[in-house]
Amino acid sequence: MDTILQMLSQAFEQLLGRAGGPLHFRLFVMPCVVTVLGIRAGLRDGRAGRRQFLWLKDSAERRQLLRSAFRDIGRVFLVAVVLDTTYQILVFKYLYILQVLIIAVMCAVVPYVLMRAVVTRLARGRNQEAAPKIAQEEPKRV
Hints:
By secondary structure, the protein is mostly helical. About 80% of the residues lie in helices and about 0% in strands.
């Protein structure tokens, strides 16, 4: 039990230590890039009238939205994996796969999902408010 606690403590310290080590810029740049991609995807979904992709019950539509999410964040996720692998080899001289996945998910997936969901909801609400106003306006006759 003591060994497990020691391993968890070491992993936690290593995860926190990334903020000040070499290649620390990736912890700021990648979430920013993925946030922009999430905003673009959310606006696209909102304009199309789609619901948030995490709460869809229609499996075909959910599959389509998940494919678009993988297209948007796939490369950034791979870059996050490569950069964190490089960091670990430079600093620890060893590779911790679970830590690589944690950092890649936190830098690439979480910001994208959050921003896409929020922006989709806001864009759909704005589009739904604008639709009745347009319908109420009568065409002007000359």
